[in-house]
Amino acid sequence: LLILSLATELAGGPVGQIICLEKEVVVLEKNQLVLSPSLSCFFSWGFPDNSCAFGNYATGKVLSERLCDWGETYCAACPNPTTVITAGSSAVVCVWDVAVSKDKLSRMKLRQPLYGHTDAVTCLAASEVHSLIVSGSRDLTCILWDLEELSYITQLAGHTTSISALAINEKTGEIVSCAGPSMYLWTMKGQLLTCADTSCGPQADILCVGLTQRHEWDARNVIVTGCADGVVRVSFLCARGVSCSFLFCSLYSILLWSHATLLVGDAWGRVFTWTCE
């Protein structure tokens, strides 16, 4: 039995990130990421002057603004409170050292640019647990980078269109990449495990992806994708590949699965909760 309810609603526009903390669920707008939950600090990008900003999501106060001289920023990742990763039109993945206190940004310094893509980088994912950065590009590839060494690991090829979404399983290190309506599952070493076409219509391009973080052997592990046709798809991993079931709802832009609860955010700033009972 699936129960749907409206959890919250943003006034500023599309939902960009949903984070489940110990005592609260934090919902941020598009182009915003939680940097430090203990300081209620977020990182934001996508401004017309190519600047970025740090702010407090509890108060809404902007702490600092900085100019990024690496073209237009399309995506970012924050694997820990002292690291911000950005990428975009320049095709370069930039890793920054940052230091943020409760009321100000004291440092934002470029640690290293990572070169490898030949076209704009459209999405990023990072895992401190597995020391891994994954970047997806319009050049139809993903690149795996070592987060600690900031070095190239391998390339994920075989996508048929621009990469639109990425996710890393914190338990296993497995990577999900999405391009158009297709979803690909890889090992953290770059071996393709399986792929599937999730489409059932002409506008089924995947916009966002999330996955459960259960034990590696648990058959209940799923991959959840939000698509441009307004459908959230739950994909169960099995020995023969990926089989899909469907949940129909309004257009969604981001999602997150936590235990028996699925939280999804849409383009109108609404966050819905699907509960399995």
Automatic annotation (TrEMBL):
Any single GO BP term: antigen processing and presentation
In its keyword annotation, does this UniProt entry include Repeat? yes
Question: Which Pfam families is this protein grouped with?
Answer: WD40
PROSITE patterns the UniProt entry points to: WD_REPEATS_1 (PS00678), WD_REPEATS_2 (PS50082), WD_REPEATS_REGION (PS50294)
Keywords (alphabetical) are: Repeat, WD repeat
First and last residues of every WD repeat: 114-155
Give the Gene3D superfamilies listed for this entry: YVTN repeat-like/Quinoprotein amine dehydrogenase (2.130.10.10)
**By its UniProt entry, which SMART domains does this protein fall under?**
WD40
Q: Does the keyword Cell membrane apply?
A: no
- How is this protein named in the record? Uncharacterized protein
To which species is this protein native?
Oryzias melastigma
